[in-house]
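Notes continue from the previous slide.

Worked example: a multi-chain complex. Inputs as given:
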Amino acid sequence: MELHALDLYIKSLIKEAGHLIRNSLATELVIEAKSNANDLVTNMDKEIEQFFISRIRRDFPGHRVFGEEGFGDVIENLDGTVWILDPIDGTMNFIHQKSNFAISLGIYENGIGKLGYIYDVVNDNLYHAVNGEGAYCNDERLLPLKETSLDKSIVGINATWVTPNRYIRHEDSIRLIQDVRGTRSYGSAALELAYLATGRIDAYLSMRLSPWDIAGGMVIAKEVGAIATNFKDEPANLLKQDSFIAANPSVHSKILTEYIHVK
Amino acid sequence: MELHALDLYIKSLIKEAGHLIRNSLATELVIEAKSNANDLVTNMDKEIEQFFISRIRRDFPGHRVFGEEGFGDVIENLDGTVWILDPIDGTMNFIHQKSNFAISLGIYENGIGKLGYIYDVVNDNLYHAVNGEGAYCNDERLLPLKETSLDKSIVGINATWVTPNRYIRHEDSIRLIQDVRGTRSYGSAALELAYLATGRIDAYLSMRLSPWDIAGGMVIAKEVGAIATNFKDEPANLLKQDSFIAANPSVHSKILTEYIHVK
């Protein structure tokens, strides 16, 4: 299928999934813990991933799916067309807040991000991008990121990463939050990437994110000029959990070189 | 004026102020720094405070106004009827995000919170309460807070407060963020109180807040059963800047006694 036709197909699919999620908000969720007591999954995460997969299998049998809940394919490379999906990014918010979560989806062809989607379900805001053709929130085109400086930046970072941890030297991340204008934490990587793309925050970083957390947002963020890498300044990892920073180009390199020291 | 009539008057006034703010979003702001480079004020903070004060002076000449921008009265006690107003709570978000800010207003009679308002201007959500008559978001009544436990709680706390600071022992606040389910930071005390009142977060704390940051939200939060104090477990300070915690009653005392140690 041609890219613009696929884009229309996916928008419709995402809206349908959003409808299913909104309808579920009034019902009781079945909640389970995964890797630890705060790593949660609900019946809806699973149902929405299965909803996507059944449609993809039917309509795009040659495509592969890399989904958070594991109903898709085992993905060890990005050959061909791969859908990288988080059916509900920000599950804790979904459970606890019934808002501030998103469907996140990126379509990659031989490793190149072609289409990106972040759907803020409750507010009905669909952020999306076609590679090389700009990013949008609903029908409104997002402007290229403006030049800024670190002392005027708002950074999306969870408090955890300025406390002793096994990933980075927290003494340096403490300096970071002292040197920026402010910090925020919203609890959904996908939404924080959408906020980066709209200029509401100037950088977003986390010690460990999975491909489905970032795949959709990276296509969108790239279209407005943001840079996304891991903490070694390598291309962000779309196969395995890794560190991640996406930022306004004015501050990306400065944050990485002066404030992030991987242990 | 009788309380319910005053409530209707204020709702209308707040909506008018919100309209002025929304209209300003497309215009260039005049931004100044106050106590430090990141303590910002705009022409709109000032204009909106003056808008409120001109109406209050005209229609309620016996009332006093305690406003963030200082156009109101010098307030050294809460005798009589006092309007405690933050025309734009979350000014940094207002400037940087054009969202995630609020008008915050509390009406106190001889120190007792009678009416409370938090207006999320961009999303057009008005949280409000009349003392003893429950709290609402728009027309929807907010439910009493449910019993919870610390390990299932989401806490609103800025990353700053888990780094070395002159107010509290950060070793203890680090334990707090390790023991809770998650932390969030939204950059507007008023909105974080609204989120507490709707159960989206279970506690919100900050080392230093001013009366206008909390006056409206306290009336609302109290109606759903939240407890608001300073870090010494004294009634929250409505005359001076002070520490502040508002929380679900299941966790308020535990957070204060086990995790907060004022220096």
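Summary box: Chain A has a mean pLDDT of 96. The helical segments of chain A are 3-24, 43-59, 91-96, 170-179, 189-197, 211-223, 252-259.
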